[in-house]
């Protein structure tokens, strides 16, 4: 099997994306050859990835915002466009979802409040046709950690799922798919985010205090359904 490439732009001191991904593989009893690339600087050699004939690409979440338009983001967008042209399978997670949309001509905007915690997502009729979405019910819970979202899809993209706050929770354009939620996360990771960044979630809502946030969070359980997306993506790699 060819190598899967992880583009790590998570930049979270509490969670290294490579370890998060490995934890997912271990929990699901999967063994996939992969190589992790740090994508947070403009010297990253994405052309070397393209010439290596990769099995596929996963783009992580990030603490950054697509609207910052940092040089490394522009370079990553060019890479995404080349992946699309070469029909390479790419799965973008949260920020990865947003930067795929931006690279292909869509619009990313900021919500008034965070979409954080366990939230239901609803599939559109076209979702049942996509191989990476097989085995998911029409409605399923997800782990969400975002304030930015894709407000307008690129031309030629198909919206596959939505939530109450977000019109495009999953979309597909050619060989690229973005998911706004985190199929690789655990509830424990959300609790770590609460410990370290609760002030942001309270300042912009929807939570009114740290006590309120922790009271809600004690009832969260790991949603299994969205993990099928990542497993389906990995199973589809050649």
Brief overview, please?
The protein has seven helices and nine strands, in the order βαβαβαβαβββββααα.
Notes on the structure:
This protein has seven helices and nine strands, in the order E-H-E-H-E-H-E-H-E-E-E-E-E-H-H-H. It is α/β, with parallel strands linked by helices. A nine-stranded mixed sheet has the order 2-1-3-4-9-8-7-5-6, sandwiched between helices. Helix 3 (71-85) crosses helix 4 (95-103) and helix 5 runs antiparallel to helix 6 (210-217). It is globular, with a radius of gyration of 17 Å.
Quick check: average pLDDT? 95
What is the H-and-E element order? EHEHEHEHEEEEEHHH
Tally of individual helices: 7
Strand content: 25-35%
Lateral arrangement of strands in the main beta sheet: 2-1-3-4-9-8-7-5-6
Based on Cα principal axes, name the global outline.
globular
- The value of Rg in angstroms is 17 Å
List keywords for this structure.
238 residues, alpha/beta, 32% helix, globular
Topology:
Elements: E1 4-8, H1 17-27, E2 34-38, H2 46-51, E3 56-59, H3 71-85, E4 90-93, H4 95-103, E5 107-123, E6 139-152, E7 158-162, E8 170-173, E9 176-179, H5 187-203, H6 210-217, H7 227-235
Parallel strand pairs: 1-2, 1-3, 3-4, 4-9
Antiparallel strand pairs: 5-6, 5-7, 7-8, 8-9
Helix pairs in contact: 3-4, 5-6
């Amino acid at each position: 099997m060819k190598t899967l490439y992880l583009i790590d732009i998570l930049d979270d001191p509490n969670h290294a994306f490579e370890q998060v991904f490995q934890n997912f593989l271990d929990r699901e009893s999967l063994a996939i050859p992969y190589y992790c690339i740090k994508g947070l600087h403009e010297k990253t050699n994405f052309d070397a990835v393209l010439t290596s004939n990769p099995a596929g690409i996963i783009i992580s979440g990030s603490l950054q915002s697509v609207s910052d338009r940092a040089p490394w983001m522009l370079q990553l967008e060019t890479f995404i466009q080349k992946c699309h042209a070469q029909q390479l399978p790419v799965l973008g997670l949260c920020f990865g979802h947003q930067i795929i949309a931006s690279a292909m001509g869509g619009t990313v905007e900021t919500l008034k409040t965070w979409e954080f915690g366990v939230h239901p997502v609803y599939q559109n009729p076209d979702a049942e046709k996509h191989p990476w979405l097989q085995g998911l019910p029409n409605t399923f819970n997800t782990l969400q950690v975002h304030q930015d979202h894709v407000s307008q899809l690129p031309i030629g993209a198909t919206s596959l799922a939505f939530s109450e706050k977000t019109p495009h929770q999953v979309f597909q354009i050619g060989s690229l798919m973005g998911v706004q939620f985190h199929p690789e996360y655990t509830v424990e990771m959300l609790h770590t985010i609460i410990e370290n960044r609760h002030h942001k979630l309270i300042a912009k809502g929807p939570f009114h205090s740290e006590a309120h946030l922790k009271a809600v969070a004690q009832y969260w359980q790991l949603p299994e359904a969205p993990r099928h997306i990542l497993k389906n993506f990995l199973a589809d790699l050649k």
